[in-house]
Amino acid sequence: MTSPPSVVATARRAFFTAMLVAAICLPDSAYAEHVFLDPGHGGAYPGATYAGVEEQYVNMLIASETRKVLQGRGHTVAMSRTGDVTVCTRDIPTWHYSESDDRYALYADGKTGVYSYGGSGSAIAYDDLQRRCDLANSFGADVFLSIHCNAAGTTASGTETFYNSWTDVTDAALSRRFATCVQEEVVRSAGTDYRRVDDVGYYVIRWSNMPSALLEVGFLSNPEERARLLSPAFRSRVAIGIANGIDRFLAQKPFTPREPRIGGEDRYDTSARAALAEWPDGASSVILASGEDWADALAAVPFSAIADAPVLLTASTVLPDSAAAAIRSLHPVTLMVLGGESAVASEVVRAAADAASLQPEAVRRIGGADRYATAVLIAEEVGTPSRSVTIVCGEDYADALSASAFSAKLGRPILLTARDRLSPATAEYLERHSNALTGATIVGGPAAVSEAAAARVNTMVPATRLWGNDRYATNIQVVKHFWPTGTMRPVVATASRFPDALTAGALAAERGEPLIVCGRSYLPGRTREWIMHESDRIGAFTMIGGTSALSTTLEWEFAKARRYAQ
């Protein structure tokens, strides 16, 4: 006679059956796979505590198990903490609402710990919560989930999930759907009571950029639920439910394109498409620059505007088919090549001239001994119609990118310098034109252009500096300064790689629009703040590059920022 199965064996079979069912019910594929998990509380903020059990401990166990499941399915996962730690103990820029201005602003308020801003409302740990948002935003997450345990009376029970729609209908459109997917799948997998999906504007789900939800798995204050939360088998079922909910949401392909985009198969194709889009009837001149380095092409942006000539990118030794086709379509009578032989080889120049059916005398090469000397030669072509110049670091492209659009708009040549000292070619140019120049704008902080280099500039021409704490903040300082009023349709480029940025600078210059830099799926805080405050002036954004450069998630983040109430 066979012995009946033990209670443990029965429970084990039930558990693995639930796992199998969950796996069978997985959606075919997920649209994206960068997931950020936030185990709520930790360190100085342990959360609810009952019978010696701290919420932060249970949250961490569930999040860790969820990460394991998600990684097993191929997702890339990041977490706000991986131990019992305070995520942030210092004063950092956080979001606060001003009744007098009727808008939100991002600033460091000189306070740390738990407090109530303005003396009213719930006390929260602003810096700690903002740091969690910052980590998720810079990670470029497609979804953000904050994991918690609830607390109320000893009989309260069930799972509930929250999303944010306070003053932000765009956020609600996707975050509600995300919260619902997580809620339903956790209840289905873990067998918990369905409590509710509701709109509560908790800080972390308001100020993380992507669709976000806050999950309350169960009640620590309820002895039965507390026992379940301490069970590894139950937590595994919760983790599977969370993963199923995330997969179900992402499989719906939630991030559809929202903004105009110019993008090709590679940097050269993107450049060609932009040129043909802006010069549909052809161009009398075409500028050919290296797509393997940034300096010549960005220094040439004001030249492009002055000469009314598109900038086409090329490989150093081979003319790409897309560039050749664009040259044939544009029918130029003059070809201007930037840089020396190492930047654009002679065989490339011949191929470009052949594509346009040009004789050698119709081709001009503008190239110096190095990038600094080439920038000076390009500056001589631009002239000094505004009696001002722009100076940027020649060792990194980010600040030069921010400088390109406004320099072209105002007819200012762009000069390059080394970080620690003013480059000789640039110094010689400034000395030679000191009588004609009335000012210089240095774009970038002292780490980009040293105080010594700036001081040297000041001996020849009065200089002002525009900069922020990073490349994104510097970019917004530039836009605020040179586009303070009026409607606009900003051009957007990635700040993490230069090729598409070269095209973006030239396109923004041709249109007279500001250039905004972001990460692939990263909307920086200062950029989000600017969009929120200037939303009424922004008609649309033009994305430069394919979705590997700027994701459609970023487009949705723009929409969330624009529709946030002022």
Uncertain runs are 1-28
Domain count, please report it: 2
N- and C-termini, Cα separation: 75 Å
Summarize the amount of helix as a percent range.
40-55%
Major β-sheet profile: 6 strands, mixed
Compute the number of helices: 20
Range of strand content: 15-25%
What sort of overall outline do the alpha carbons produce when their principal axes are compared?
elongated
Topology, number of strands = 22
* Widest sheet: strand ordering: 4-1-7-10-8-9
Mean pLDDT: 91
> What assembly state would you assign to the polypeptide chains in this entry?
single chain
Radius of gyration over C-alpha positions, nearest whole angstrom:
28 Å
SS-based structural class? alpha/beta
Write the layout of secondary structure elements.
Blueprint: H1 7-24, E1 34-39, E2 49-50, E3 53-54, H2 55-72, E4 76-79, E5 94-98, E6 103-107, H3 126-139, E7 143-150, E8 159-163, H4 169-190, E9 194-199, H5 203-207, E10 212-219, H6 223-229, H7 232-250, E11 261-262, H8 267-278, E12 285-290, H9 295-299, H10 301-307, E13 311-314, H11 321-330, E14 334-338, H12 346-355, E15 363-366, H13 371-382, E16 388-393, H14 398-410, E17 414-417, H15 424-432, E18 439-443, H16 451-458, E19 463-466, H17 471-482, E20 491-494, H18 499-511, E21 515-518, H19 525-534, E22 542-544, H20 552-562
